[in-house]
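Exercise 3.2. Students should predict the tertiary structure of the chain below and write it as structure tokens, then compare their answer with the key that follows.

Predict this chain's 3D structure.
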Amino acid sequence: MIDQSLIQSNFIGRDNFRWWVGQIAPIESSGKQTKGEGWGNRYKVRILGYHPFSKEELPDEDLPYASVLLPPTSGTGSANFVTAVRLRPGDVVMGFFLDGDNAQLPVIFGAFGKTKDVSNAAASIGFAPFTGYTSKVKPPEGTLANTETNENEKDSAKSTRNVDEKKIENINKQKEEGRPKEISTSSTLGATLIPANDCNDNFLTEISGTLDNLFAAVESGTDFLGDVAEATAKIQKLTNGLVSNMMGKLYEKMVPELQGGLDSLYNKVYGVTLAATQNAGIAKRAGIAAQEGMIPGVKGMEGVIDCLPGKIVSGLGKTIQDLLNDALLSVANNGICVAEQFASSLLDGIINQISSSLDGVLDGLASILGPAFKVQDVLRSSSDLFKSAGAFIDCNQQNNKCAGKVLSRKSGGNAKKPFDVNGALDNVLNNLNSNSGGTPFIKPDCANVDFCGPPVVNIFGGDGLGGAGKAILGGIVKNTEGLSDVTADLSRTGSLIGVEITDPGLGYFTTPPLITFEDPCNLGYGAVGEAVVDFNPDSPTYGQIVNVNILSGGENYPMSPSDDGDAINSDNIPIGVVDTSILNTGFDYEDAVVKDDNDIEYDVVIQNGRIIDAKPLNNLKVDNLPIITITSKTGSSASIRPILGRLPLTPQGDIVQVIDCISPNINNIVGYINGKAYTGAYHIMPNGVKMTGASHSENDAIIYDTPQESFRTARAVDTAMTMTSTTPTTQVQRIGDTDMTDTSGSSYTPPSSPSSGGGY
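Answer key:
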């Protein structure tokens, strides 16, 4: 119970209420409280009007403890219900005295938010602002913003950026003086990751990824020696399979030579002995004895070969480290060229070690190997020798099991465009055989800085071939400060708002390719695109890339120095919405008004309550990726993406609304099954599912409205759910039409099975 001598009346509430404003003292004044020997939620508080400013007159250690009045939602700790109090030293708090005018029992019931004007040093006098960080709670490093504000403005509680630290550095260079710096979400972002791969040799890919990560770490970090040592150890580990494979291939080529040499030795000794003795038995034994005399040398050679890979790998550390140091000093931008020449120099060192280790042993076998057999010549003869052991497991490539295999990707980002492994290995062989000493990183121009320009559209993977496009950039901002550190040729940045297809590719029948956007300047980030492929076998563009959906435009991508160079700049070349991509058709649409935030209206086609097409009614120039909205009294869930491209050079003029009369479905396409168009008979179940056949049977397949939907959601339908028959009806409606057309499923000739209906 509260001692009644401490209060002025019989119970709290009828005394003289005294409130106060104070500041929580530095943590050093709390003594045992901070060492786990205190009690309760309490803080030393210097109270305005009651306590002096001077710490000599009243030291922090002599201040009273103020208990914290907890809200009911925090819990008291009873039955393990509790929430920690989060007040920090330097916080300005408000409270009252439990003992009224005696002013000896302060209680905290609230706090004032901090502003950005808080000092970072300890206060020398009372009531001066100071930092809440202490020796126990240190300022964050890496992925959290170092902030001490609680203000409702743009610089308060800054969210971290999902980009790598190099891009963060470039972003911060462009910020105004005094503005808070951006921080990367994770220090591992941007690292090159190499997934397991049983379809391609991963040695060069691993080398390239390791070099990528080393260049990034050295550029942004401070532990140079540690970064080099880590990369050395990783590459040294990679050479295990490589050296084993080289020794295996060498032995395979040596065995026929040894066998042929032994046969020749036998024949030679047999002939000489027979001529001297005229006794075939003696000649035979002499030939065998000559062969047996070579057995110790062959066994010694086999023993050396068995132990040699481990010895070579163990001794490669210094060689690899020297090559890494040379690369860091000689190369400006890493790439496959650097990986090729690094590998060729590494292989040169391995081959020299193998050759020198075997020369002595093979000298004893010169009589059967002959002078023409040279270890150096064998090991430098074919790029197949440079492939890692066990990397070429049969993966049924003839059935496209390995089609579109991703060899590497960026942490927190997209897959990386793969390079031609076989071509790269051939380049390694050429570099290896032309190595004339000196730094390896000058052939061909590996040490030169790549041109810093606009983003490059990379199209790769999938089950087809080819594909290329130009980036369309909008939302242009003048950013000379950040770009000037990289290139003097560029002065503007923007967002990626579209892709102009310059090569549609071919053969993408089941799996679309991947799309990535590579910024040579390493400034842009956040752009995400999705390839749209024509899966209609009756279409003239079947298996080709028809457009790219921009899911996120990103920002900070350098503009092309010319109006229509490697990328298209929307501020100089008229860009507008030329088409749309239906990501989701939605359902239950009887009406729909489709517009975007640029006041562009769209002509909409509705079929069976689903939006299947939307075309812009006017050609308006846009500078940003439009946001399309759909307004309907009945339908929901449709999603439409704009497709941007060049507008006609002659402006259309005023907005004109065009109302089409209803027209038949092109090629009589009903929908799609497994990405293929279906044009046969169909019926609609009571739950709205469209299925093959004029009437329901167990063999029916689901028909989807788009190829993408048919791949994403292809699945069997519960027969029990759909057995109830109904009159199959389809409706095709173009917004603005005054009439509808109903087509009964009975007008079709029922197929015996979905595949025999001529549909797809």
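Discussion points: The CA atoms of residues 681 and 747 lie 9 Å apart. Residues 4-111 form a domain with the OB fold (Dihydrolipoamide Acetyltransferase, E2P) fold (CATH 2.40.50.260).
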